[in-house]
Amino acid sequence: MTTERAIAIAARVEDFVRTQIFPYESDPRRDHHGAPTDELVYEMREKARAAGVLPPHILPDGTHLTQRETATVLIASGLSPLGPLACNTMAPDEGNMYLIGHVASDDLKQRFLKPLVEGRARSAFFMTEPATMQGAGSDPSMMITTCRRDGNHWVVNGKKRFITGAQGAQVGIIMAKSEEEDSHGGACMFLVDLPDPAIRIDYVPNTIDTSMPGSHANVTIDNLRIPADQLLGQAGDGFKYAQVRLSPARLSHCMRWLGCCIRAQEIASDYANRRMAFGKLLIDHEGVGFMLAENMIELQQAQLMIDWCAGVLDTGSLGTVESSMAKVAVSEALMRIADRCVQVMGGTGVTDETVVEQIFREVRAFRIYDGPTEVHKWSLAKKIKRRWKEAHG
């Protein structure tokens, strides 16, 4: 169950998104990949600041809402694909703020977290690597980007791929495998100012989704020198910190895209209750009505799954099992919901006359981002095997 505090914040967020952000969905300020420009992002954020919803899930004293409370608020911000950008609840910034807030020193928080929380900077999380025979891809344990000590600096070399928001970001979190013996082959994380000449954006591919500024860049890191005091946490603990970030971040994705699919259902339902075909409203045709009914059921199931996983995270658990289950169940359900909304609206559903078409594309990408469905299922299957072996010797 959420709280009255969260319900009140979410109501303000929903009113702001519906009244001030929906009109921006047709704004032409997009880059050549179709993503919103920084000009558009920061203009919306100024409006969010004036409305007192920037960011809505981090309180004035710097503390966060609980995960269950955050769910209520982030779902409301997700009613538009632009809503999380405006309210500063979007990936990768939301997850990066969470990680820095939990791991960084006070000095690093002041330098790197403060501008992010204020919505005056964007950030990028440099973890994913090209899926070569050796590269990490979806498996961070195969990371080949390295870091080594050199006096009072660390030197980082490697390649990263699909780094969301790298183009135009001011804050970076870089993950690299340590070559130092006392790190026992673990990973390190570093906070860096961007742009940096040692971090080269090689290529920004066009992708199916278009909601994130800077899109998803391929990057080369060439002898990047990072002052030792910009190490995030302890050397060798990078994989542990990755889970601190990724488990809540997966759930936050579920929250935001649930909001989008609630919106798609609203649009499709309105269409079905106005459009006549074969002598009656579409909603009165069983095939159409049943699709919207199935959506209603799965939206509620997704909400319950998010609430359950959020409750686990609120106990202080890393919740890796639970977040994997939520990521699979919610992303797959939202894909079915978005697909049915497109189908109900027919030709209109595949045009940019409504936001339904974009929501369909964004949710399709969500089935891959933060770990494809199959990777999470494989991870869960390994845990099932381990538990069986523990129970049966």
From TrEMBL:
- Looking at the keywords, is Flavoprotein present? yes
Coiled coil feature spans: none
Q: Where is the Acyl-CoA dehydrogenase/oxidase C-terminal domain?
A: 236-383
All copies of the Acyl-CoA oxidase/dehydrogenase middle domain together span 124-202
Q: Name one Pfam family in it.
A: Acyl-CoA_dh_M
**Gene3D superfamilies in the record, alphabetically?**
Acyl-CoA dehydrogenase/oxidase, N-terminal domain (1.10.540.10), Butyryl-CoA Dehydrogenase, subunit A, domain 2 (2.40.110.10), Butyryl-CoA Dehydrogenase, subunit A, domain 3 (1.20.140.10)
Named from the GO MF annotations, one term is: flavin adenine dinucleotide binding
Which cofactors does this protein require? FAD
Q: Which SUPFAM superfamilies match?
A: Acyl-CoA dehydrogenase C-terminal domain-like, Acyl-CoA dehydrogenase NM domain-like
Please give the InterPro entries that the UniProt record associates with this protein.
Acyl-CoA_dehydrogenase, Acyl-CoA_Oxase/DH_mid-dom, Acyl-CoA_Oxase/DH_mid-dom_sf, AcylCo_DH-like_C, AcylCo_DH/oxidase_C, AcylCoA_DH/ox_N_sf, AcylCoA_DH/oxidase_NM_dom_sf
Signal sequence bounds? none
Q: Name its GO BP terms in alphabetical order.
A: fatty acid beta-oxidation using acyl-CoA dehydrogenase
Source organism's superkingdom? Bacteria
Which controlled-vocabulary keywords does the entry list?
FAD, Flavoprotein, Oxidoreductase
An example GO CC term for this entry is: cytoplasm
PANTHER family in the cross-refs: ACYL-COA DEHYDROGENASE FAMILY MEMBER 11, MEDIUM-CHAIN SPECIFIC ACYL-COA DEHYDROGENASE, MITOCHONDRIAL-RELATED
Family, according to the entry, reads as follows: Belongs to the acyl-CoA dehydrogenase family.
Please identify the protein, giving its name as recorded: Acyl-CoA dehydrogenase
